[in-house]
Amino acid sequence: MKDKIKIIKGDITKRDTDAIVNAANRTLLGGGGVDGAIHRAAGKELLLECRTLNGCETGSAKITKGYNLKAKYVIHTVGPVWSGGGRGEEKFLTSCYANSLTLAAENGLKSISFPAISTGVYGYPPEKAVKTAVAAVLSFLKTDSVIHTVEFVCFDDQTYSLYENELARS
Ligand code: ADP
Questions:
Q1: Quick one: which atom of ligand 1 is closest to the CA of 25?
Q2: pLDDT tens, per residue, the chain with 170 residues
C-alpha cells in the first residue's frame, strides 16, 4: 500500500492528479490559505458551484469540478479546529481523509492529492495531523482497489519531513 503514497513538496494547485483536496471551511465559500489558493487557480466558476452545495459539516466531503485547474475535480473537506485534542479532533480529521477518499473512489478517480488539512489557521499540531493522515490513508488503501496514487502535498520542509518519517515508521 505504501507504494501508492507519494510525498510532494510544493503547491497543490499545480498538481495533475484526478482530484485535489481543499481544506475548506463549513461555508464552502472560500477563505485563506490553501482554500484561497485553490479558488484563485480554479477561477470564479468554482465559487458558483460551491454556492449550490449548502456548505459542508466538519469531517465530511463534497466534490466539484476543477475548472481551470489541471485536476479535473476538487474534493472539499472541512477539517476540525484544534482545541486541545479533547473535542474529537482526531476522529474528525480521520473522517476528512476517509470521506474524501471514498468520494474519489465512488467517482472512479484514480489519483488524489491532499494538503496537510487543519495544520494552518485551524491550528492542529502538524506531528499529530501527519500521524492521523498517514494512518487514515493506509487504512483506506487496505480495502480499496480504485485509487492507485495518493499524494501528500507539503507547503514547507518541516511538514515534508514529518510525512517522510511517519511513512517510514508505518
Ligand atoms: P486549515 O484551515 O485547514 O488549517 P490552511 O489552508 O490554513 O487550512 O492550511 C493547511 C495546510 O495547507 C498548511 O500546512 C498550509 O501550509 C498548507 N498550504 C497553504 N497553501 C497551500 C498550497 N497552495 N498548496 C499546498 N499546501 C498549502
A1: 2
A2: 899 999 999 999 999 999 999 999 999 999 999 999 999 999 999 999 999 999 999 999 999 999 999 999 999 999 999 999 999 999 999 999 999 999 999 999 999 999 999 999 999 999 999 999 999 999 999 999 999 999 999 999 999 999 999 999 99
- Closest to 165 in 3D by CA, of 110, 127, 120: 127
Residues labelled catalytic: 35
Q: What is the pTM of this model?
A: 0.98
Question: Does the C-beta of 115 come closer than 6 Å to ligand 1?
Answer: yes
**Contact between 96 and 140 (Cβ < 8 Å):** no
Q: With a 6 A CB cut-off, is 90 part of the ligand 1 pocket?
A: no
> How much distance in Å is there from the Cα of 26 to the middle of ligand 1?
16
Cα gap 30→12, rounded to integer Å: 16
User: Counting atoms of ligand 1 from 1, which one is nearest the CA of 37?
Assistant: 23
Can you list the pairs that 49-56 forms with residues at least 24 positions away whose Cβ atoms lie under 8 Å?
50/76, 53/28, 55/26, 55/27, 55/28, 56/24, 56/26, 56/28
* Alpha-helix residue ranges (DSSP H) falling in the chain: 33-42, 44-51, 89-106, 126-143, 157-169
